[in-house]
Design goal:
The chain is an alpha/beta fold. 35% of the residues lie in helices and 19% in strands.
Length: 219
């Protein structure tokens, strides 16, 4: 694949220090750590998140995926784990992002928008001014058992492209990305970064063969 601006890569669902360094050595500039979620893969204890994050070099963005919606709870999670980026996987009330940025100076705030329909465009526009970036994923926060990511499913990339063209902040693209479709996803959406979890894992572990193939497809 040839792209003029190769997107950055965030490898999510990191389970150990060894997986973290495997992803970094392959070229990842960001790593995702999943805290308690109502559903989906990759959850690890906050103590392990803190242990891994502590051993990583400062240029690497360390993302805490959180399903919490209350400021005190989210702030407490960040202080326990010491990550430098918050990935807010559920919808938050208006004003929450500003309060988080005030309480946690220097910590980036990324809002997930689940692309279930064209309504995601309005949702992204509404929150874009309050966050450092938007992450477009495949999920359903209104389901009886909330899906807040890690589904392994793709969504309508045409909607994601429209969001990327509209919002004034960087866009991460997630949702069912794999070595065999990431080139097309990047061609269509042209995101700032791509985010991958299940597409690089086999038998519960980060797969070095899939990891290498994914980066080769990005050129």
């Amino acid at each position: 694949m040839t792209v003029s601006n190769r997107p950055r890569v965030k490898v999510c669902c990191i389970q150990s220090v060894d997986e973290a360094w495997m992803a970094i050595d392959a070229g990842a500039s960001a790593l995702g750590f999943v805290s308690a979620m109502p559903s989906g893969p990759g959850v690890i204890p906050e103590g392990l998140i803190a242990e891994i994050a502590r051993q990583l070099p400062p240029p690497i963005a360390t993302f805490l995926l959180t399903s919490r919606r209350d400021v005190p709870g989210i702030v407490a999670q960040q202080r326990r784990t010491r990550v430098n980026t918050l990935q807010l996987c559920d919808r938050l009330q208006h004003g929450t992002h500003a309060e988080l940025r005030e309480r946690l100076p220097g910590v980036a705030v990324i809002q997930v928008v689940h692309v279930t329909s064209e309504e995601a465009l309005g949702e992204a526009e509404a929150v874009a001014g309050d966050v450092d970036a938007i992450l477009l994923d495949t999920g359903n926060p209104t389901a009886r058992l909330k899906e807040l990511g890690g589904t392994g499913r793709t969504h309508d990339w045409a909607v994601s492209r429209r969001i990327r063209e509209t919002v004034p902040v960087p866009v991460f693209l997630a949702g069912g990305l794999r070595p065999d479709n990431v080139a097309e996803a990047v061609r269509v959406v042209q995101p700032f970064a791509v985010d991958v979890c299940s597409g690089l894992r086999s038998r519960g572990a980060l797969d070095p063969v899939l990891l290498g193939a994914f980066f080769r497809e990005l050129g």
